[in-house]
Design a protein that fits this description.
Elements lengths: L24 E5 L2 H4 L12 H6 L17 H14 L4 E5 L2 H4 L9 H16 L3 E7 L5 H4 L8 H17 L5 E6 L1 H10 L14 H20 L3 E7 L3 E3 L4 H14 L5 H5 L4 H9 L7 H5 L5 E5 L4 E4 L11 E3 L15 H15 L6 E6 L16 H19 L4 E7 L18 E3 L6 E3 L1 H16 L1
Helix pairs in contact: 3-5, 7-9, 8-9, 14-15
The protein binds 5-hydroxymethyl-3,4-dihydroxypiperidine.
5-hydroxymethyl-3,4-dihydroxypiperidine binds next to loops.
Length: 461
């Protein structure tokens, strides 16, 4: 096994963070298809990402998640790296088709055993397991029956949630049902950028409603089994490009789709009017659905990366009624995403203003950035831009807390460099560098910075 010495690093110009308090959870996050590999091991069935990534032209450089970080065979080393950060919690996801190869029949015992042992390995290292049940890797067999466009998938998801909770629930306190249902609907069903690769534009909306229904049904199954339930949404503060009515309207539509679609029904039991009308037109809302979706949450997961600037389209005939504009005058990540830590403060304070007492405690379930992160001649990776990014965003979280928002935890995306969906292995988000030829793990400077910050927080409380 590789050992990881902790050399002295220049951590850039950041100073100690303000105190977040003894109960604040420090974590990192990963997802099954992005790290596990072992795509055909021990009875795992294919997921939509196995199918999609093998279709020519879908993924940059033809990459697939067949091997990824080979975490399936290296989980001991990876969890030791997580523990070396001094984390309280480790967010990971469960591959549905490893547990139920066809998404609906009896469990695959080897699949459940893997996660059972993974949870034990976390507990041995004092890491609280924070699983996500669905991080976009739908069993292909369910996609063959319509995927999330088919209402039945919501019921299959609740059965799968119950099955996993029956096995792991004695050791898992909190469950995240879905990861970023907006991104899954928009990229997977509306725009064809992600699996399953449909380009349905507004006809993708049922995939949003059915995911929410699956969340609500799974929440009931998990609660019955004594679990606490969260949902992890990708959220962005949205600004109009000008005060012109057309830009204001475009920004409002974008905010409704990206943020309110997956928050309003969960927190208030109602869809925004625009969505209620579009979903009703498509006949997808059944009696009782909204009550199921509005099941009480123990916490809301927020994944934040960047704000969004929106204008009305110049061509009114284009399929989408908004255009996303570049944000200039700020640094950009390797993905060319604008780095705007104050957007996180604005988002959190804005959520509290919008949802008031309906807003449950918030966990930042993802925040992070990709950079090229070259390995230098001395073998080290001095990712000072990532340190600056994390430092700035943690200070923004602290500002929001000081303004009264109840934020209970922060998870860096990601522990490891991994398979970044349509961009394959070209975007590195990890605190730990992965050489995808040799599988060598090397902690970056940001890993040591994060470990030091967590240590300092503990020493100060
Ligand atoms: O890698 C993804 C993750 O799977 C979901 N949230 C955004 C990350 C970076 O794109």
């Amino acid at each position: 096994m590789t050992t990881h010495a902790l050399p002295e690093f220049d951590h850039g110009s950041t100073s100690a963070l303000p105190a977040f308090g003894a109960d604040f959870l420090w974590g990192t996050a990963t997802a099954a298809y992005q790290i596990e590999g072992a795509a055909e091991a021990d009875g795992r069935g294919p997921s939509i990402w196995d199918t999609f990534s093998h279709q020519p032209g879908r993924i940059l450089e033809g990459h697939t998640g067949d091997v990824a970080c080979d975490h399936y065979h290296r989980s001991d080393e990876d969890l030791t790296l997580a523990a070396g950060l001094g984390l309280d919690a480790y967010r990971f996801s469960i591959s549905w088709s490893r547990v139920q190869p066809d998404g609906q029949s009896a469990a695959n015992p080897a699949g459940l055993d893997f996660y059972d042992q993974l949870v034990d390995r976390m507990l041995e290292r004092n890491l609280s397991p924070f699983p996500t049940l669905f991080h976009w890797d739908l069993p292909q067999a369910l996609e063959d029956r319509g995927g999330w466009l088919n209402r039945d998938t919501a019921y299959r998801f609740a059965d799968y949630a119950a099955l996993v909770a029956d096995r792991l629930g004695d050791r898992v306190p909190r469950w995240i049902t879905l990861n970023e249902p907006f991104i899954h609907m928009a990229f997977g069903y509306a725009l064809g950028i992600h699996a399953p690769g449909h380009s349905l534009y507004f006809d993708a909306l049922p995939a949003g409603h059915h995911q929410l229904l699956g969340h609500g049904l799974a929440a009931a199954a998990l609660t019955e089994r004594g679990g606490q339930v969260l949902l992890a949404n990708n959220c962005t503060p949205v600004s109009p490009a000008s005060d012109q009515p057309a830009d204001l309207a475009a920004a409002d539509v974008y905010d409704t789709l990206h943020n309110r679609f997956f928050l309003d029904p969960v927190l208030t039991g109602r869809y925004p009017d625009l969505l209620q009308d579009m979903l009703a037109e498509r006949g997808v809302i059944h009696d009782g659905d909204l009550a199921t979706i509005a099941a009480p949450l123990a916490g809301l997961g927020i994944n934040y990366y960047t704000p969004t600037l929106v204008s009305a389209p110049e061509d009114p005939h284009q399929p989408l009624p908004f255009v996303q504009l570049p944000i200039d005058g700020v640094p950009h990540t390797g993905f060319d995403w604008p780095v705007v830590p104050s957007g996180l403060r604005d988002l959190l304070v804005g959520l509290r203003e919008r949802y008031g007492t309906n807003l449950p405690p918030i966990y930042l379930t993802e925040n992070g950035c990709s950079y090229p992160d070259p390995v230098q001649a001395d073998g080290q990776i001095r990712d000072h831009e990532r340190i600056t990014f994390l430092d700035g965003h943690l200070r923004a979280v602290h500002e929001a807390i000081a303004e009264g928002v109840d934020v209970r935890g922060y998870f860096v995306w990601s522990l490891l460099d991994n398979f970044e969906w349509a961009h394959g292995y070209t975007q590195r988000f990890g605190l730990v560098h992965v050489d995808f030829d040799t599988q060598l793990r090397t902690p970056k400077a940001s890993y040591h910075w994060y470990a030091n910050q967590i240590r300092a927080q503990r020493a100060g409380v």
